[in-house]
């Protein structure tokens, strides 16, 4: 009973942050759909008056979940966007990942807001594909002002000693190496322009340990260190690097049978999964909605955040009261 309770109390972080993955197999080559500019007069007034009007954002994990919410939030503020995603399945991941149809729908929703957009299928683990994605975004949209590494996956396992190599390697490759590859592809462009905002979607799992997700926890702690290191390296070029750490978010990563079994192995129901999050979050909610994460993330892109860097903001429904760093 004590072990089950402990799992419930620590569930939220590991099944929390990060959009669905933007990684494909090593043989896959980056490919894109042509951007479509809004027709004259179609851009809505909200887009024209947005606080990010004229800016361009590139982000990963864009096909659905947090990524789609980010796309719409940016477009509502007037930004043009480059949407990068896997639109394919990684074999070690138990839940269904994004599809080409998901990516196409995100593109449609962004265009409906009056923003220009280009969708790009690329592997965040592959430096060459991420560089090609960045080059395409710059060619089609003119520049990259905002970079949001958002792609992430999670595998739910019994313990570290009972997980497969793929369950470790794939999560580290997407969640940590993928963030680094995404930054490496865009930072030179930002350095040349002497400006940029990098905002990483991380997780509350970068704040504590929890059983059953060792690769996810390790990747998220690693991302936090990477954010703080990169922030020191690019600060002189007027580039900020920050992260947000959500608690559990209602995406396919958390709403699946593997997550239910992990939260309560004895009785893996949706009701018990919701209860576990309610116990973890002091505020009276279970999972955050993707839109709540996206709206919080926007702060780091705004003028008021120009002098904030190396920071990690917990969007944790109060769960963050349990740690002090």
UniProtKB/TrEMBL annotation:
E.C. no: 1.1.1.100
GO biological process, one term: monocarboxylic acid metabolic process
Signal peptide as annotated in the record: 1-23
Keyword terms of this UniProt record: Membrane, NAD, Oxidoreductase, Signal
Enzyme class: oxidoreductase
Recorded GO MF terms: 3-oxoacyl-[acyl-carrier-protein] reductase (NADPH) activity
CDD domains, alphabetized: SDR_c
Domain of life according to the entry: Bacteria
Residues passing through the membrane, by range: none
Family in the record: Belongs to the short-chain dehydrogenases/reductases (SDR) family.
NCBIfam families hit by this protein: SDR_subfam_1 (TIGR03971)
Protein name, per record: 3-oxoacyl-[acyl-carrier protein] reductase
């Amino acid at each position: 009973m004590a072990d089950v309770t402990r799992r419930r109390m620590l569930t939220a972080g590991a099944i929390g942050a990060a959009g669905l993955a933007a990684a494909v197999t090593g043989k896959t080559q980056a490919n894109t759909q042509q951007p479509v500019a809004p027709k004259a007069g179609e851009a809505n007034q909200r887009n024209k008056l947005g606080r990010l009007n004229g800016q361009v954002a590139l982000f990963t994990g864009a096909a659905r979940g947090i990524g789609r919410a980010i796309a719409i939030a940016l477009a509502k503020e007037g930004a043009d966007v480059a949407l990068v995603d896997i639109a394919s399945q990684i074999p070690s991941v138990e839940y269904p990942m994004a599809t080409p149809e998901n990516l196409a729908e995100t593109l449609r929703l962004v265009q409906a807001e009056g923003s220009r957009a280009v969708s790009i299928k690329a592997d965040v683990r592959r430096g060459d594909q991420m560089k090609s994605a960045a080059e395409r975004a710059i060619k089609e949209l003119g520049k990259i002002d905002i970079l949001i590494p958002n792609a992430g996956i999670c595998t739910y396992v019994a313990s570290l000693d009972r997980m497969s190599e793929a369950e470790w390697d794939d999560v580290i490759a997407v969640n940590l190496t993928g963030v680094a590859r995404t930054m490496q592809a865009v930072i030179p462009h930002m350095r040349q322009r002497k400006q940029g905002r990098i905002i990483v979607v991380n997780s509350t799992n970068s704040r504590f340990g929890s059983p059953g997700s060792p690769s996810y926890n390790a990747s998220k702690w690693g991302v936090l260190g990477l954010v703080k290191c990169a922030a020191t390296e690019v600060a002189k070029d007027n580039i900020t690097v920050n992260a947000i750490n959500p608690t559990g978010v209602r995406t396919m990563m958390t709403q699946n049978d593997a997550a239910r079994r992990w939260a309560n192995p004895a009785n893996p129901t949706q009701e018990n999964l919701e209860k576990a999050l309610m116990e973890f979050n002091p505020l009276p909610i279970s999972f955050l909605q993707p839109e709540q994460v996206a709206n919080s993330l926007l702060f780091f892109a705004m003028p008021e955040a120009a002098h904030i860097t190396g920071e990690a903001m917990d969007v944790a429904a109060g769960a963050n009261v349990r740690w002090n760093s």
